[in-house]
Design goal:
The chain is mainly α and 67 residues long. 51% of the residues lie in helices and 0% in strands.
């Protein structure tokens, strides 16, 4: 079933989309996050945050032992 009718629900006011501002909260969001992107080849070895955290802790523990 397909048609060209707008699919926005009736309970949402039209002003909601007319006056929106793209990226309004983007800077605030970025300031409050600590997301780090890793390269695709590293993603194979570190598939989740637990693996990354363990590797970083192991690395730091090794560095602390040598200083």
């Amino acid at each position: 079933m397909s048609n060209d009718r707008d699919t926005m629900r009736d309970e949402y006011p039209e002003e909601l989309i007319k006056y929106g501002e793209r990226g309004k909260y983007a800077a605030r969001y970025r300031a409050g996050t600590n997301v780090v992107l890793i390269d695709p080849d590293l993603h194979e070895r570190f598939p989740n945050s637990e693996a990354v955290n363990k590797a970083l802790r192991d690395y730091l523990a090794g560095k602390a032992a040598t200083t």
